[in-house]
Recover the amino acids of this structure.
């Protein structure tokens, strides 16, 4: 990891910057290729942040919910599971949904598989749950591994219709910036090693091609959530296996990536991130979102927070023409 210094600085300042770089690398799963010249104004989350759910039994198991925007119907749910010692990485846990509102609702029991993120630092459990009505829900999570045995809970709020494009909907046909509309890559992304292929086409033009499209909204240099990861790198890897079969687009969260230079107080949000309703989410800062659109431009799957190559591969294959 290379750090650029633009002027001589004191030894104490160097220590602070090195601490910041190390912390940011942990928070982003090792995805940061280099560090900004100055620390972002926002704090970086620790390995097990205070937002983790309280333990419900003597095991000390806690959850960190990665999927907070949920609507009625079948939804992808992702969460991290922690023990008092470390991040839990057993292959599967059992998840049961329980409706906490008035009246009866159809809960279900499913298995959630563990997905290790790139660089092997952390990962999340993922499953699909069907929520048949809006309101408060609880997930009862049971772990029964060699090193982990106990129960954790996660509280979810399911809305009738959220502000972010849901599965089956047609999202805004954004005219995001491309290499053809700006004079340099630095105006397109905060990625320190960007893939030019991800900045060749707008969402509007991609949908017009009649091919499936994968759109990632992310800020590679400034992911500060405990559930962030190297999403644009994963998108490039997905693209390399499906050249010509689909469109692959990265939309930077910030409108002015070339002006930030490590200081997020200068940042303004890009128009697409506002058009898609992502910036209106409660407590959202700069968490990534990924959408897989079918050939008609409808959302076939969406991923809040980091989505692994395995998940994206499965979602994309489901909308590709069957041979």
């Amino acid at each position: 990891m290379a750090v650029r210094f633009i002027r001589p600085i004191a030894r104490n300042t160097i220590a602070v910057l090195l601490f910041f770089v190390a912390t940011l690398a942990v928070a982003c799963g090792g995805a940061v290729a280099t560090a900004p010249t100055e620390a972002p104004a926002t704090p970086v989350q620790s390995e097990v942040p205070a937002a983790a759910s309280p333990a419900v039994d003597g095991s000390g198991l806690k959850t960190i919910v990665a999927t907070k925007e949920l609507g009625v119907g079948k939804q992808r749910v992702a969460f991290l599971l922690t023990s008092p010692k470390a991040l839990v990485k057993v292959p599967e846990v059992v998840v049961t949904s329980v409706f906490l509102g008035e009246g009866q609702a159809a809960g279900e029991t499913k298995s959630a598989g563990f997905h290790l993120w790139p660089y092997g630092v952390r990962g999340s459990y993922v499953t699909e749950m069907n929520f048949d009505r809006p309101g408060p829900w609880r997930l009862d999570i049971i772990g029964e591994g060699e090193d982990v045995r106990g129960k954790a809970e996660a509280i979810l709020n399911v809305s009738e219709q959220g502000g972010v494009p849901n599965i089956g909907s047609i999202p805004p046909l954004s005219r995001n910036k491309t290499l053809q509309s700006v004079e340099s890559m630095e105006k397109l992304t905060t990625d320190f090693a960007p893939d030019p292929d991800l900045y060749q086409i707008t969402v509007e033009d991609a949908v017009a091609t009649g091919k499936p499209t994968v759109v990632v909204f992310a800020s590679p240099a400034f992911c500060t959530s405990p559930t962030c990861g190297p999403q644009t790198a994963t998108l490039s890897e997905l693209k390399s296996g499906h050249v010509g079969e689909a469109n692959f687009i990265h939309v930077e969260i910030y409108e002015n990536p070339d002006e930030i230079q490590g200081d997020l107080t200068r940042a303004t949000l890009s128009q697409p991130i506002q058009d898609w309703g992502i910036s209106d989410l409660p407590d959202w800062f700069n968490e990534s979102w990924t959408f897989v659109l079918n050939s008609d431009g409808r959302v076939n799957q969406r991923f809040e927070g980091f989505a692994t190559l395995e998940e994206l591969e499965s979602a994309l294959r489901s909308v590709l023409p069957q041979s």
The helical segments are 11-27, 203-208, 231-240, 257-260, 271-275, 309-317.
